[in-house]
Amino acid sequence: EGYAVSRSHIRSNAIKTNCPMT
């Protein structure tokens, strides 16, 4: 569960920074 939350946060952050990281 924690991983899923982290993924969602990373994805949101990636989109915010406009960086296709994950």
Automatic annotation (TrEMBL):
Superkingdom of origin organism: Eukaryota
Protein name from the UniProt record: Uncharacterized protein
Organism: Nymphaea colorata (pocket water lily)
